[in-house]
Recover the amino acids of this structure.
């Protein structure tokens, strides 16, 4: 117990020290985030060194205390690529297509480091693993690249990306304990301590009114890549842990990303475009404080993680857990529609179409009102508002 306390304390101090040093360096090199009064509504220039500090401390602690090959060479190379790409993107935004190509390349490297043919998906896929290898490889690459972008997208409120990541890491540690993978537990605990050191500077509290350091694209994408890789390791190295059950642990950012992509496509916009349609933005617009928004979504993430863990403990088939994922996705969709006013507008729009008579009042999905003295007829309106 005492050695664990000492190493944990030393790792935490290392993480804080890295943050203090890098905060000064990033200011010198203009690696800062400035408000734009539209999406970025923070005050002043905030250093974007959180991700660099977290994973620098994580690497130093890992290499200094134990063998560095527990996560595999592919992981460290992929992590280095995603961090460097994130730093460049923080300094000068890269084209969305170029970022996607690099993320897919990194995902291929990470999936190549896992025994993806042993991916535990469900009973229906438990036969000849080599037959399903191309499918599993595609799922792995899509999952890694998707989670990289998901974590980048939820990084919009003080403490949110790091807070949800900390909740996720705790559940992954618990699952790793169930799967009897002590080496992975030590790595995850080290990363969690480094992340907690960052949250001291990033999460709002009675002692901190706003974040003084941001993750940056380097940090958010690296967290997504690491969590995705750990999930693949757990789902390929333990037959007791199914991949769909583990997806429950990260379903909140996944569902929010899928929702954003669909709404942006319906609005005839690029899925990679920036806006304030994220779930956390909608909560903020409803009057929640940044701290309350972060706390609420952390609790939701913890509950979803508990469902995934319960499914693993109860040996629920992967197919059942996969179908069950439709529930949080549907709840997220309904909540987003309701909170943005679209649910009531759709109902009013449909009700208008069913009316007939001398006059009718029609509502479109944009919330506009039109009056007609004729029988109600479908009116051509823009129905792509989020």
């Amino acid at each position: 117990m005492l050695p664990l306390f000492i190493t944990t304390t030393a790792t935490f101090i290392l993480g804080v020290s890295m943050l203090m040093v890098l905060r000064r360096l990033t200011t010198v090199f203009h690696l800062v985030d400035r408000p734009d009064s539209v999406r970025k509504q923070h005050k002043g220039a905030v250093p974007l060194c959180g991700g660099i500090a977290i994973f620098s401390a994580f690497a130093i602690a890992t290499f200094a205390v134990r063998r560095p090959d527990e996560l595999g060479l592919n992981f460290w190379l992929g992590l280095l690529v995603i961090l460097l790409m994130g730093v460049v993107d923080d300094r000068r935004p890269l084209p969305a297509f170029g970022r996607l190509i690099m993320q897919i390349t990194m995902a291929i490297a990470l999936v190549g480091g896992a025994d993806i043919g042993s991916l535990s998906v469900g009973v229906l896929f438990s036969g000849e693993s080599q037959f399903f290898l191309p499918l599993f490889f595609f799922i792995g690459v899509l999952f890694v690249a998707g989670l990289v972008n998901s974590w980048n997208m939820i990084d919009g409120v003080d403490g949110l990306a790091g807070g949800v990541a900390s909740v996720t890491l705790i559940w992954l540690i618990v699952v790793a304990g169930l799967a009897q993978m002590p080496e992975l537990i030590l790595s995850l605990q080290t990363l969690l301590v480094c992340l907690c050191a960052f949250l001291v500077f990033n999460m709002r509290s009675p002692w901190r009114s706003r974040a003084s350091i941001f993750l940056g694209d380097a940090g958010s994408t690296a967290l997504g890549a690491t969590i995705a890789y750990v999930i693949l390791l757990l789902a390929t190295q333990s037959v007791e842990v199914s991949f769909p059950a583990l997806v429950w642990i990260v379903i909140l950012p996944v569902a929010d990303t899928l929702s954003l992509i669909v709404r942006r496509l319906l609005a005839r916009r690029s899925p990679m475009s920036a806006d304030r349609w994220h779930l956390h933005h909608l909560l903020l617009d409803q009057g929640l404080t940044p701290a309350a928004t972060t706390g609420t979504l952390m609790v939701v993430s913890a509950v979803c993680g508990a469902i995934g863990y319960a499914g693993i403990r109860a040996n629920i088939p992967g197919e059942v857990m996969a179908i069950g994922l439709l529930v949080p996705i549907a709840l997220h969709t309904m909540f987003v529609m309701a909170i943005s006013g679209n649910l009531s507008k759709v109902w009013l729009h449909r009700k208008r179409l069913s009316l007939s008579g001398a006059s009718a009042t029609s509502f479109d999905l944009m919330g506009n009102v039109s009056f007609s003295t004729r029988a109600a007829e479908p009116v051509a309106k823009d129905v792509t508002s989020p």
